[in-house]
Amino acid sequence: xxxxxxxxxxxxxxxxxxxxxxxxxxxxxxxxxxxxxxxxxxxxxxxxxxxxxxxxxxxxxxxxxxxxxxxxxxxxxxxxxxxxxxxxxxxxxxxxxxxxxxxxxxxxxxxxxxxxxxxxxxxxxxxxxxxxxxxxxxxxxxxxxxxxxxxxxxxxxxxxxxxxxxxxxxxxxxxxxxxxxxxxxxxxxxxxxxxxxxxxxxxxxxxxxxxxxxxxxxxxxxxxxxxxxxxxxxxxxxxxxxxxxxxxxxxxxxxx
Length: 256
Known about the structure:
Shape: globular
Number of strands: 13
Oligomer: single chain
Number of helices: 4
Distance between the termini: 26 Å
Strand order of the largest sheet: 9-8-7-5-2-1-13-12-11-10
Structural class: alpha+beta
Helix content: 10-25%
Order of helices and strands: EEHEEHEEEEEEEEEHH
Number of domains: 1
């Protein structure tokens, strides 16, 4: 496994109580976490050490900003499972563009020592506009390359989805293709799903620069799209669910 860029689309489909769907083009870096500073330093437009047009900022991601992200991910897995991943950790997420950060979900892929098996996926969800985070720890597939699991919703995300939901997750071990498919089920019925489907591109200083030039406002567009689609749902009369007070504690989940 090597660091790379994935490019493709994200699709959302709502089935009840009103039908609604949309698809957007997206591109995200897939970076080995302990190599992020060196990978970005090779580009003139990116940085992990201070402000740049494209920027990795530690505080945008999992755990204590004073703890290296690689350690924070391993600590989170250990907290949930009692096991620390033995190999490298890769991050799939949007990095800051022009100072703006927006990541509805950041995925950390944790491999074994020789990178022959995906041990865990940590899915870190951030809600808008509350900017709360919750991470789900998912055990990788024992056989093959497809991860399938279910777990209860633990954090308020969309005001158009209630809390009493169960997530059905499917994803592959990243290779030339990367797919994440998440369904929201309520009372045994699917009411919503989201699919991220992307193809790999080689990572280089030039391809990092092209990512920023081809998708210059990716994070800002993501934020605007959230509010634009929310307005459409409101107009369609989809019921609104207020944020529960207090917010549910971030306890995590695994598929053990």
